[in-house]
């Protein structure tokens, strides 16, 4: 059983796109794979239930289905920071509960990809942020860099914070979210030079980005971080 925590340089960096492409790549290789969105704001009511687009996309990309209460335990309607949404809803985010939900999902799968909300230090409460959740989950981290102007600073700060957390830093993914970014190759080279973790993949700009799969080499690169015995017979 393996778990990874997917963080990003910002909200809208492409965490969901990268998570879906990773899920599909794991599925292609025969892993029972599932996504988790522990905390989601900006949800919509559908048939009496608060639903989140990230969760729906994970479900389509993965190969395991599990109760919504486990894959997306905290869902809030307003599209605001989770700690504010939780406060408004009177529903404090309990890290212990999230750890328990992740453990339930692990019973059903070989690979669990946990997508954060916002960036690495996005608050979950007055006391805890996304980093604290990742540490509680003890999950190797994959950073998604949304390639656009300003991403170098965001990426270096986040990479530094991930390394300071003590968690394994499995690698980072360059997601070409802005197809018109000037000097893309030079920016990519700068990131490759100064982030000590490996660049796992580049995701091209595509209208179909959520429905694609990362190449097998990407899975090979993070395989050292997978717990032994995760692959099905
Ligand atoms: N490689 C890409 N090509 C084209 N569009 C992309 C790409 N990556 C992301 N997008 C688009 O950018 C938007 C944000 O991407 P995504 O939802 O994956 O970000 P996120 O980091 O998961 O955001 P959030 O913090 O809300 O969870 C989406 O509309 C998505 O389709
Ligand atoms: Mg997302």
State the gist of this model.
This protein has 233 residues and is an alpha/beta fold. It contains 9 helices and 10 strands.
Question: Mind sketching the topology for me?
Answer:
Elements: E1 2-8, H1 15-28, E2 33-36, E3 39-40, E4 44-46, E5 49-51, H2 53-61, H3 68-71, E6 74-75, H4 82-89, H5 95-108, E7 111-115, H6 130-137, E8 141-146, H7 151-165, E9 169-175, H8 184-194, E10 199-203, H9 216-222
Helix pairs in contact: 1-2, 5-6
The structure holds adenosine-5'-triphosphate (ATP) and magnesium ion.
Describe the structure.
With 233 residues, the protein is of the alpha/beta class. 39% of the residues lie in helices and 19% in strands. The chain has helices at residues 15-28, 53-61, 68-71, 82-89, 95-108, 130-137, 151-165, 184-194, 216-222, and strands spanning 2-8, 33-36, 39-40, 44-46, 49-51, 74-75, 111-115, 141-146, 169-175, 199-203. Strand 8 (141-146), helix 7 (151-165) and strand 9 form a beta-alpha-beta unit. Helix 1 (15-28) runs parallel beside helix 2 (53-61) and helix 5 crosses helix 6. The longest helix has 15 residues, at 151-165. It is globular, with a radius of gyration of 17 Å. Bound molecules: adenosine-5'-triphosphate and magnesium ion. Residues 8, 11-17, 54, 117-118, 175-177, 203, 205-206, 209-210 line the site of adenosine-5'-triphosphate (ATP).
What order do the SSEs take from the amino end to the carboxyl end, as H and E? EHEEEEHHEHHEHEHEHEH
What radius of gyration results from the CA coordinates? 17 Å
In what range is the share of β-strand residues? Answer: 15-25%
Major β-sheet profile = 6 strands, parallel
| CATH architecture call | 3-Layer(aba) Sandwich
Distance between the termini: 13 Å
Bound molecules: adenosine-5'-triphosphate, magnesium ion
Characterize the overall form: globular
> Class, according to the CATH hierarchy?
Alpha Beta
Structural class: alpha/beta
In total, the number of domains comes to 1
Biggest sheet strand order reads: 2-7-1-8-9-10
